């Protein structure tokens, strides 16, 4: 109980002390004034008494007007003694002055009294405020004590959590070291697996070559034996049959296959006048040549051979139609949508995003209708591409791999693993069973899809953001503001074209004569591949490249260039004139990541960072 009482006694003593100081200060102001006022009052009373004594009675006073002439010569001291009237006037003037002074003093006293009352009111207000503040201070001190206790508890808890954090950090270091060891082991195992696949492919090719060589040697021996053999042919079938039977019994003919005999017999049974054994050898030669051609065709899919099988050409529209309005808007994915691609039929669209899903959509009656969902991606989708036949779909993911789907099957068919960082682009080549991927690990890889094997790795000095493929060329856009050209038949870079800004996307025209690049300097550039020079640069007020993976495309007839901006607008430039043809706004409220123009030229699909997929007509 002593604790709470002590602060109350202190503030009471403080108030009494302040009141005393105020009394002393205010009393000091009036110490001189009150005595002076009292003296004036005393003097006024004295003057009143003197004036009463000096005032003559009515019988004794003689008016000055009745003064006789003898009073003029009353004596020599008449000039020195003032008359009573003069003294009365003088005292009356002094009395008036004293009354004025007293009035002024009284007025000042009233003013000072009023000021004192105001000061007392102010003092009371301040005292009340002081009391409230004292109460507030006491409450704050109590709260401070409580907060200090809480701070002490939090400090103790923080110390415990710090110790736990240090333990977790040490455990994390150990687990990271273990993870690095496991990753190194996984990398070694992957390299060994790839090497084993390469050796198995080489051994398989070698066995096929040996088998074909043995078959060719056997056929050549049969041809030599057949060439050395003489056949006598007579007019009668019996003689012919006997001759054939005699030859069949010889040791040289006994080694021939039964199929060859049947084929020869069927040929000899046809009506003719004369023939020789060269007819048999000619048909056999044709079969041998066909076998050799089939063997070369089969070798085209091996590691060392180059495939000659190409996809059929995709029909392209003559004149593309400019989109003017949004036909359908869907919130298609659970998070950001980063990739979109049309199939060769122009009625199938694929979209992929950060939710690790690929959705296939059919365009029916100007609307997007869900067709299928492809699952199994190990990370966010960064790129999707249909093969020219429309039967397969290739996607690049953040899981350091590209994955292959067969359209119509929900699960992934193949996983192309081998990159050491995020795969940013994956595209089919024009030859069957081949693809190209680009990654942030500064490599571009060529893949044999038939064996899910990396046939070639190209090391680059910068991150690869996008790739496109021509007949015998691979073009890659990089983070160091350069576009590089690679001959798929040679190991080295054939050409480098610098651009201003990090390259975010590449688009190759259908005739493979022009290349469209989009970069972070908010420009699109058209490169004429015939002269390897930048032909046009497209800019527009308000157009800004929204990310490092913003995609721009040519129209199918190469008349227009299309790209999405950071503010959700689509910009279309005329390639021939270089002018901005139109800009489309409306459904997109976030940055547009990618756009796609269908091969028929009638529709455009755009996707953005806000999960929207928009169909334009």
Offer a concise description of the structure:
With 617 residues, the protein is of the alpha+beta class.
Structure description:
Residues 231-241 have a biased composition (Polar residues). This is Protein Atg16l2. Residues 14-205 form the Autophagy-related protein domain. Residues 116-219 form a coiled coil. Keywords: Coiled coil, Cytoplasm, Protein transport, Repeat, Transport, WD repeat. By secondary structure, this protein is an alpha+beta fold. The protein folds into two domains: 11-52 and 86-192, no CATH class; 326-616, 7 Propeller (Methylamine Dehydrogenase, Chain H). The chain has seven helices and 28 strands. The protein has helices at 2-30, 33-54, 84-228, 237-249, 251-254, 258-269, 278-299; strands at residues 326-331, 337-342, 348-353, 358-364, 367-374, 381-386, 392-397, 401-406, 414-417, 423-428, 434-439, 443-448, 453-459, 464-469, 473-478, 482-487, 493-498, 503-508, 514-519, 523-528, 533-538, 552-554, 560-564, 570-574, 580-584, 592-597, 604-608, 612-616. Strands 1-28-27-26 form a four-stranded antiparallel sheet, with no helix packed on it. The protein has a four-stranded antiparallel sheet with strand order 2-3-4-5, with no helix packed on it. Strands 6-7-8-9 form a four-stranded antiparallel sheet, with no helix packed on it. A hairpin with a 2-residue loop joins strand 4 and strand 5. It is elongated. The model is unreliable at 59-80, 233-286 and 288-307 (pLDDT under 50).
């Amino acid at each position: 109980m002593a604790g709470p009482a002590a602060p109350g006694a202190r503030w009471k003593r403080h108030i009494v002390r302040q009141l005393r100081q105020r009394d002393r200060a205010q009393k000091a102001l009036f110490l001189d004034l009150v005595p002076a006022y009292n003296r004036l009052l005393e003097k006024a009373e004295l003057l009143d008494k003197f004036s009463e004594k000096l005032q003559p009675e009515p019988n004794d006073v003689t008016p000055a007007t009745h003064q006789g002439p003898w009073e003029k010569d009353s004596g020599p001291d008449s000039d020195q003694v003032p008359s009573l009237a003069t003294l009365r006037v003088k005292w009356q003037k002094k009395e008036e002055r004293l009354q004025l002074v007293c009035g002024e003093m009284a007025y000042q006293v009233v003013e000072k009294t009023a000021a004192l009352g105001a000061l007392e009111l102010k003092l009371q207000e301040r005292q009340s405020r002081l009391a409230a503040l004292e109460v507030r201070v006491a409450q704050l001190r109590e709260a401070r004590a409580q907060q200090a206790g809480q701070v002490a508890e939090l400090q103790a808890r923080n110390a415990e959590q710090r110790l736990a954090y240090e333990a977790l950090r040490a455990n994390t270091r150990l687990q990271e070291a273990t993870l690095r060891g496991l990753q190194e082991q996984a990398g070694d195992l992957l390299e060994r697996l790839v090497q084993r696949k390469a050796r198995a492919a080489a051994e398989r090719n070698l066995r096929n070559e040996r088998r074909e060589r043995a078959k060719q040697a056997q056929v050549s021996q049969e041809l030599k034996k057949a060439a050395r053999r003489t056949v006598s042919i007579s007019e009668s079938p019996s003689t012919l049959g006997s001759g054939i039977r005699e030859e069949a019994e010889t040791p040289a003919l006994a080694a021939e296959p039964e199929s060859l005999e049947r084929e020869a017999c069927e040929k000899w049974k046809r009506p003719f006048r004369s023939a020789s054994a060269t007819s048999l050898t000619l048909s056999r030669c044709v079969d041998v040549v066909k076998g050799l051609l089939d063997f070369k065709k089969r070798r085209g899919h091996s590691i060392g051979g180059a495939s000659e099988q190409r996809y059929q050409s995709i029909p392209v529209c003559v004149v593309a139609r400019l989109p003017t309005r949004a036909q359908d808007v869907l919130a298609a994915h659970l998070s950001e949508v980063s990739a979109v691609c049309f199939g060769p039929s122009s009625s199938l669209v694929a979209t992929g995003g950060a939710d690790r899903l690929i959705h296939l959509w059919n365009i029916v009656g100007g609307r997007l209708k869900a067709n299928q969902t492809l699952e199994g991606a190990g990370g966010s989708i960064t790129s999707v591409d249909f093969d020219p036949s429309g039967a397969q779909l290739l996607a690049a993911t953040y899981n350091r791999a590209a994955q292959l789907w067969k359209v119509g099957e929900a699960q992934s068919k193949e996983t192309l693993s081998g990159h050491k960082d995020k795969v940013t682009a994956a595209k089919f080549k024009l030859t069957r069973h081949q693809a190209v991927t680009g990654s942030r690990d500064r490599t571009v890889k060529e893949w044999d899809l038939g064996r899910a094997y990396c046939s070639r790795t190209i090391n680059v000095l910068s991150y690869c953001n996008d790739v496109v493929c021509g007949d015998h060329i691979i073009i890659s856009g990089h983070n160091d503001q350069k576009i590089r050209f690679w001959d798929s038949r040679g190991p080295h870079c054939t050409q480098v074209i610098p651009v201003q800004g990090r390259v975010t996307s590449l688009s190759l025209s259908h005739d493979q004569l022009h290349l469209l690049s989009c970069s972070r300097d908010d420009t699109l550039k058209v490169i004429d591949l015939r002269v390897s020079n930048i032909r046009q640069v497209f800019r527009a007020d308000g157009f800004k490249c929204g990310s490092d993976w913003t995609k721009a495309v040519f129209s199918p007839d190469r008349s227009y260039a299309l790209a999405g901006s950071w503010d959700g607008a689509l910009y279309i430039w005329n390639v021939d004139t270089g002018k901005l043809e139109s800009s489309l706004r409306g459904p997109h409220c976030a940055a547009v990541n990618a756009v796609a123009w269908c091969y028929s030229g009638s529709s455009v699909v755009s996707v953005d960072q806000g999960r929207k997929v928009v169909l334009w007509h």
